[in-house]
Amino acid sequence: MKYSIQEHYQKLAQQYDDFWGTSSDFIDFLTQAIILNLQLKSTDILVDLGCGTGIYSKAITSQISLENKIICVDPSDKMLEKIPSNNNYQTLVKDAVEFAHEQGKYDKILIKEMIHHINDKEKLLQGLFDRLNEQGILLTILLPPTIEYPLFQQALSVYESVQPHYNNLVNICENIGFKTTVNFVEYAVSIPKENYFNMVKNRYMSLLSRFNDEEIKQGLTEMTEKYANLSNLEFCDRFVFLVAQK
Fold first, then answer.
1. Closest to 151 (Cα-Cα) out of 213, 214, 199, 212
2. Contact, 191 vs 204, CB < 8 A?
3. Do the domain assignments include residue 94?
């Protein structure tokens, strides 16, 4: 199966928000952590790089009043169409590395679960370092090297083979000139099994776009057997918050 991350998100755009529509507590929790780690102030110029449908940009504006529009950048125009056209947001259809090497100065930059899609991470991070104002902060959120998601075994194995290690990102950031801190954020997830299986079927994670329909079907069969006695799936969702300050 040909793996295309761009095609994955274009297809997912229409239903992406529905996957998280019942998870407002989860979104609010992570948003609070984002605001704290970014040390976000009302006067900051914030970039949400790889913002998708703007779930976290929208949550940020509900928790803090910003004087400037959040600059929401994503290569998927279909995802960006889900962001309201108002004075809170400025949308930009653009590749992250391309954006990082254009003109512009910003106070805070958020990258949430996007860095694993970037081949030349050093080029991206160097560009963002140059775009930040003095004392500016780049917050990169990614998953740890291993996860406890209730996925089928092949998916978990592929995940571990492709997920970048946060320590490697720390080294890149510090070589560029950032001062870095790593924080770990955990959230106890409880989700109806039927809902989660539907999310897997629809490839809610970009990881799952690496599998064809038959492989997804086989994976769901494996999951059905493994979790046969459960109606709710409970697991710990762990995030690495890499705070890089200029």
1. 199
2. no
3. yes
- What is the extent of the structural domain holding 55? 5-149+162-189+237-245
3-state SS assignment for residue 237 = strand
Classify each residue of 26-63 as buried b or exposed e, where b means 16 or more C-beta atoms within 10 Å of its C-beta.
Answer: bbebbbebbbebbebeeebbbbbbbbbbbbbbbbbbee
Name 179's Cβ contacts closer than 8 Å, sequence gap at least 6: 244, 245, 246
Distance between CA atoms of residues 122 and 221, nearest Å = 40
CB-based contact 79:15 (threshold 8 Å)? no
Residue 180 lies in a domain: yes
Enter the pTM of the model. Answer: 0.90
pLDDT tens for each residue of 95-149: 999 999 999 999 999 999 999 989 999 999 999 999 999 999 999 999 999 999 9
The secondary element (H helix, E strand) that includes residue 18 is helix 5-20
How many Cα atoms within 13 Å fall on the side-chain side of residue 25? 5
